[in-house]
Backbone:
């Protein structure tokens, strides 16, 4: 990902209005920004700042692997 996709995403041209095709690049960039600012992986940041803080017993966005630890 860091070696192949990231350089292509960062260097991809921005097309003129009306020629733009939907892309998830902004979400990949947001992930990188959050991880750099938080100093931890995105999944851990979400767990620490949202799930645990809100005391969610079984949030739907957490994979079953994590939920089995709480059972």
Residues:
């Amino acid at each position: 990902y860091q070696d192949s996709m990231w350089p292509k995403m960062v260097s991809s041209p921005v097309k003129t209005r009306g020629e733009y095709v939907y892309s998830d690049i902004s979400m990949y960039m947001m992930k990188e920004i959050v991880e750099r600012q938080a100093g931890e992986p995105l999944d851990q940041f979400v767990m620490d700042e949202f799930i645990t803080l809100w005391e969610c017993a079984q949030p739907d966005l957490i994979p079953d692997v994590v939920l089995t630890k709480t059972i």
